[in-house]
Amino acid sequence: MPLKRVIELEHGEIGLDDYPIFDETYRAKLNKKIIDHYWNQEIGLETNDMFRLAMSRKMNEIMPLYNQHYVLSLLTVDPLSTVDLKTIVASDGTSNTVGTSSNEGLSTAKARAIGSEFPQVVLMDNGDYATTGNDTISDTSATGNATDEQNATQNATQESTNTGYQGHAPALIFQARQALVNVDMMVIGELKELFMLIWANNDSYSGRRNYYGIY
To answer: Do both 133 and 197 map to the same domain?
Structure first.
């Protein structure tokens, strides 16, 4: 029984509705390619139910891997861009300056005021006399400390970018072409085992046997 007859009998339900796919909007497009490719091919299983189960099982087994192929095929790659280097140099500088100063001073002052009309009071043992006397002694001491601290931090970043390609340009383009794959056909090829690979055109055979062998 060819696939198109199975689709008619099963109202389009042939196990292509629930397999995982990278983009749900792509399911109808992929299903159409599968159906169109095997439209006239005879199924390789005894019943429609067995075929539908086999199709569903196979698609669920292979699509997790092929979904990754689909995602990669969507990437835009420039075959003449093989070098893309970015260099970042960062430098940090920190300086710390501490200064300390200290000063200390000591001063002494003495003063004497003497008035003498007639010697009355002995000032010292050496015989100085005075009517009145006043001695003043002053000591002054001063101490000072000062600390000065300075911190400085400097950050600098330098960035350079190098892009282009290395190698022979035609060779790079040729390698890029070899890397291209048709993921749809890879999926379709995986389904060969579900069919007998016999082409059925559904032409009706003539019942008038006397016509055979005329020519």
So the answer is: no
Please check whether residues 172 and 200 belong to one and the same domain.
Answer: yes
10-residue mean pLDDT series, the chain (215 residues): 94 94 96 96 94 97 96 83 75 67 61 55 52 60 66 75 75 71 94 88 53 46
For 91, the token pair is 């430098």
Separation of alpha carbons 16 and 19, rounded Å: 7
Radius of gyration, CA atoms only, the chain: 54
Q: What is the pTM of this model?
A: 0.56
Q: Are 35 and 68 part of one and the same domain? A: yes
Q: Distance between CA 81 and CA 86 in Å, rounded?
A: 14
The span from the CA of 105 to the CA of 102, in Å, is: 10
Give me the pLDDT at residue 13, please: 93
Q: What is the Cα–Cα distance from 215 to 213, expressed in whole angstroms?
A: 6
Torsion region of 213: left, alpha or beta (phi above 0 gives left; psi -120 to 50 gives alpha): left
- N-to-C CA span, the chain: 31
Q: Are 112 and 128 in contact (CB under 8 A)?
A: no
184 closest CA partner among 4, 18, 10, 36: 36
